[in-house]
Amino acid sequence: MKYPQFLKEKGTIGFVAPSCGCALSPYREAFQNALCKWEKSGYGLDLGPNCYADKGIGISNTPEKCGRELTEYYLRKENDVLISCGGGELMCETLEYVDFEAIKKADPKWYMGYSDNTNMTFLLTTLCDTASIYGPCAGSFGMEPWHPAIYDAMSLITGEKSSFKSYGKWERDGIKDEEHPLAPYQCTEDLKLRSYCFKEQTEKENAQMVETDKVNMKGRLIGGCMDCLVNLTGTRFDKVKDFTEKYKEEGFIWFLEACDLNVFGIRRAMWQMEQAGWFQYVKGFLFGRPVCHGQEMMGLDQYQAVLPYVLRHKVPVIMDADVGHLPPMIPLICGSMAEVSVEKNKMTVKMELL
Question: Which of 77, 160, 180, 215 is the most core-located residue (most Cβ within 10 A)?
Fold first, then answer.
């Protein structure tokens, strides 16, 4: 696994928009405030041509121009790390225009983003054997004041920290809008982690996943937004089985979270990834709060959407964690070796660059 150099003091941050850019309010104001904050901290800025573009469908520009920008700015010597401007809907269409072979041969560089950026964070790791950061996009750094999770993301990309703890509360409904573009997270909901471990079959009971308040798992982190992952499954960009075979001795912690998928969509996604052989060497699962948190359809909730598939692998699982679309989110190094533990409703993630 190739690990990039961390962002140094007075280093240069590059920005790209392979998904949506920051052309419209409140994203533009938040991005501009983030740029000011970084500049005041002494960092150089290197903005790609699509950062303020609004010419695409679900992305900042045409797929060709987005793919070209992503490749050029990854290979570009004028920046030291890349942070995506934002998420979106159709970053997958840019992939055929990204030169992954050139990226694979280049010096590794940190790329940070989440949601639609799974198309880059996941493929950097599985195609290019290069670690990436599943963390907040650039606009989040414009909030006033910064949430501890934003400080954590910055401390990760600068190499100051690699161990993080859950934040205690989360945001169900944000107030960021055109009138409040710099609004911070409104964390009003108490964190309520749900963890399960495997229980062997007995004479009286079938094998099952039982809830517990203490869980520990170790393995190589891999994953992202399920909406994007299932879209990649079975395409020419799907080299997951080769990747997992290479690192099978360490095994994997799959971190997964869902944006647009309802509980049945999550269940179908688990089936598809399972059938594709992605979970062959899994050591544990880490699920973020889905946007459909609390939803139930035809007797199926977010827990039973995934637990039957976890049961097949006899591994522990942590659910409703600080990962993904319902902030705050712990920044995760995709490709790193990690130990994830829960005890009494507190989660700790320790990552090593091995």
Answer: 215
Q: How far apart are CA 91 and CA 20, in angstroms?
A: 8
Residue type, 348: T
Which backbone phi and psi does 267 adopt, to 5 degrees? Answer: -60, -45
Share the mean pLDDT of the chain. Answer: 97
In sign, the C-alpha dihedral spanning 24, 27, 33, 34 is negative
- What is the three-class DSSP state of 352? strand
CA 289, distance to chain mean position in Å, is 12
- CA dist 228 and 177 (Å) reads 26
- pLDDT tens-digit series, residues 164-223: 999 999 999 999 999 999 999 999 999 999 999 999 888 878 889 999 999 999 999 999
**Contact call for residues 20 and 60 (beta carbons, < 8 A):** yes
Compute the residue count for the chain: 354
| CA–CA dist 133, 258 (Å, integer) | 17
How much is the pTM? 0.97
